[in-house]
Amino acid sequence: MQPYELSLAAAAQEIRERRLSPVELVDSVLNRIEQVEPHVAAYVAVSADQARRTAREAEREAAQGSYRGPLHGIPVGLKDVIDVGGVSTTASSRTRAGHRAASDSAVAANLRAAGAILIGKTHTHEFAYGLTTPQTNNAWNRGRVAGGSSGGSAVAVASGAATFALGTDTGGSIRVPATLNGVVGLKPTYGLVPRHGVTSLSWSLDHVGPITRTVDDTALVLAAIAGHDPRDPASVAVPGVDYRPRPDPDLTGVRVGVPRNYYFEHVDAEVAAAVRRAIAQLEALGARLIEIDIPMTRYIQATQWGLMVPEATAYHERTLRTVPELYQADVRILLEAGELMGAGDYLRAQRARTLMRDEWARLLAEVDVIAAPAVPMAAVPSGQETVTWPDGTVESVSDAYVRLSSPANITGVPALSVPVGQDAAGMPIGMQLLGRPFAERTLLLVGHAYERTQSARSLAPLT
Amino acid sequence: MSSAELTPPEAARWAARAGLSLPDDRHSVVAATASHIHSVVAVLRELDFGDTPPAGAFRAEQEKRDAAV
């Protein structure tokens, strides 16, 4: 096994026990990037020289017995909406030409302090406003969409071009690409991971979180990036927690809610079957399955749009007036149309969110987690714009990919996507686990317990 | 066209009122997209919000409304 193939936890153990040096790991990942980038185009920029320099420092520290923790010497890719001091944050947009971040974002600083090594900035759907990331190809089939908007991060992790990555999630932008590329994605509770220094799409829906190859790895990254930061007005001070799940995959006593409505409607049959098999596996591990009804489903898309559209337009107000032609067509039209939404619509969405959060709190008093599909269908061929469901309903691909993700953005509850198989075309399928606010530990416990019943996942078969 | 749908000149005028001058070739596409967005968010008018406040500065964790102080 090559170092680039190691999970974060496995690489950390090798480094800790001095069987692997950070220099070897970084070199291995950089070589892998050279190998796969022509096929997947996950990166906006790779900082090879800087990464090698930092790896040598990490190696020196390790040789002196100074070990910063499990991220010491581990290569990370950051979605290119996350500031790194002195480096351009392009947001994969021509409007950001010449940009240079003055300082590290909160999460970049946290990762640096934890010893992680920034290997590059990964592609996003322009300004995170979209679900496909058209610059990047799916790690499992380059003719399929990467998913978005954190497409570059998910593809890099899935193809061995980063040991882990960070993404952002406003309507599924971590969970969608993670699922479509067969890796793990966590949208943490709103307020748990600080967003200072992260380009906003929609302030009241944006989250930053990890994309990794295992649930255990997600726990290690979350511990490094979670924490209060007063520079993010949504940031919440919560006590430090050991997120790492216990190795024993026993779920006795865990109540798993299985939605009767919404999450299994207009879902590809292969996706539904794979997720139901995974839920049966949770039951076999001791969990108690409880059928539940998702509240206020008629108002989910309206609330998501009512919040996101005007907030995104507000963020881009200046550049939409000065350089509108530099935006991609799909993003420009949404920003322009957002100018026409009134305050009444926005306030109704904010009030609907209050109602929805309260309803979800009631629901989550009855179960410990909700298990459901992460997205309705696996990665579609690039360029496909709509999906037609068996009842004749036609839905845009973007709407379909957002549909099962946005409830967690609106309510702020944590949501973890975990691979649970592949469809007949070999494309990955994911299960989503949702929980109470700040109950990431429970999600990670359940996700890890499931993962332990499966054979270890391999990297995407891309050469 | 329903009464809720914007005409291209209306879209241009509304955008101008918001401070965004749209080139002529953008009026139709912006009108169509804005009308679609309107049709999605308009369902929120069905809800009876009563005294419900907006979640402008919200916390994911529900406040303990009956907590002793």
TrEMBL record, chain A:
Coiled coil stretches, renumbered: none
Protein name: Amidase
Domain Amidase, first and last residues per copy: 24-444
PROSITE patterns: AMIDASES
Xref: InterPro entries: Amidase, Amidase_CS, Amidase_dom, AS_sf
GO molecular function: catalytic activity
Organism: Streptomyces ruber
PANTHER family noted in UniProt: AMIDASE AMID-RELATED, TRANSAMIDASE
TrEMBL record, chain B:
Superkingdom of source: Bacteria
Protein species of origin: Streptomyces roseiscleroticus
Identification of the protein by name: Amidase
